[in-house]
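Why Ca-activated chloride channel family protein? Reviewers of the renewal asked for a concrete example.
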Amino acid sequence: MSSTTGPRRFHRGHLLGLLVGLALIAATAIGPRQVAADGNRAGEGGNGATVAPCRRTERIQVSSSTEKAVVMSRLAEQYNSSGRAVGDLCGKIDLTPLTSGATKNALAAGMKDPPEVWLPTSSMWLRLLEQEGHGDLIARDPAPQSITTSTLVIAMPQSVVEALEKHGKRLKTWADVLELSRSGWSAYGKQAWGKFILGRDNAETSTSGLAATVATYIAAPGELSAANLANPQVTAFVHGIESSVTRYGDEAVRFMQQIYDAEQRQDATKYRPYVDAVVIQEQMAYLYNRGAPGGDPGKMSAERVPRNPLRVVHPEDGTLELDHPYVVLASATPDQRAIARDFYQFLIDPLQQKEFANVGFRPRDDATRPTEQLVHTLGVPADQHLTFVQPPDGKLLAAMVNSWDKVRRKTRVLLVLDVSGSMNEIADDPNRAQDPTKLQLLIPAAQRALDLLDDDDEVGLWTFSSNPSYTQVMPVSRVGAVRAQLKARIQHLKASGNTALYAVTDAASQMMAKSLDPERINAIVLLSDGQNTENYPGGARTLLDKLNPAGRDTSVRIFTVPYGKAENADVATLAQIANRTKAAQYDASDPLDVGDAFVQVFRNFG
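Here is what the prediction returned.
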């Protein structure tokens, strides 16, 4: 299938696909050689390879996007043990996984100890970094170059595809997604499934989210320009698609694992897809169907193949190539750049390229055609020849992200915070002269999370302990009207008493369900550092039975944050609450991580 319906074209803002070729050879006077295992002996190596003395070793830090982090870690280990050298210089690769958007944001904010090499999923992040005035962070010698490729797809559980095909419907375009979001499942004999549910990531942190935003704007009516983004027809098109989103995943690998786990838990007699479609990178759909949704190829096996595999669509009105550039940062020293060049050459060797193909990527020099692996696992036509739409320059990209934030589905969220006496416990913080309490760490984390919400989102605050079980600190209100007031109330929180975890969860869920706004994402963020200590008839099982087990678009999703030591927080019950309501749990077992946990949670809301 190809996008042959006349997608609009425009010039790239930056040419990030230059060949390294002779520039690499000229920059490195002595090419890579094999070195002895101990790095000291000279002579002849195995298979006739020259063994050179390794007099110096240079380590480079590599930041990889999360969906390819596991295969990249494996390749880094192979490189480290390969005995390659550049002259008398040997290299070691230290790899860290981080989403492309998070790395871009950190670099733009003056990241402390930045990596020497950055491996985002798409060059669009480089364009945004340059648009924000930080193009000088990117080295031009060597220039960014792809190490592999993939495409953006709309992936649907097989049961969804079959339900549509039974009524003569096939999803082929973004316009089809809009139609389904408006009609819901009643038009296709699945009234019990309710509204059409689309899963996608946040455009500010995830490449799948950014690419989905770009693709929908490209598919919208009219000419593509910054001025036309505010055109009522364009905003109606994009908002119509966004209206079917029930949450914005903060990170694609985590989201796919959650979908897989939920699908595997479902009772076949009461089946309702976790999502009807998800906008992701094709490679991740491949791993999902092989039983490795979390991105670890080592888990691919016949035993882990999902009961309800994904089928993919390359939208005819907007398919994007994801080019996986290899980016050397300008802060790298000459020796580090030499090792970076050699590591790149190692990665594009045919042997290593097979590793990428085996985990679902497309060839780095031709993303238009599928590999045998994609044909076999995803059912992609063997003769497929995609036509890609070109991504916009940095200025238009930034305008799209800003526009998306205005038209995305808005949120109605209730913050439910534990203020029991255990929140006065001291947390070890090596960066402070006096260690803070857990509550003192929580307060600024919750305040900063409010800044991630739009003025037109809605937010409220409850706290819980005992006598009373919970307190309604602030009713759910428009963020723009209460942000400052809510921050002040959070600032003055005090901790005492026991932990009425079950009672507050029950009451908060009922309140949010009764006042549910179907036009918004309805959610609760529940943080607790302890076990339930107060009487609750029937205990955890009764609570879980009360929560909406169907988890359809009309449900209230409860995102949980177990806080502090695992033996204290009721991690298992909190995880069950999140799973039952089709949400997610975020780890803050180290109290110093509570700020990061809140950022991750709130990214689900846009």
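The two ends are 31 Å apart (CA to CA). This is the kind of structural detail the renewal will allow us to pursue systematically.
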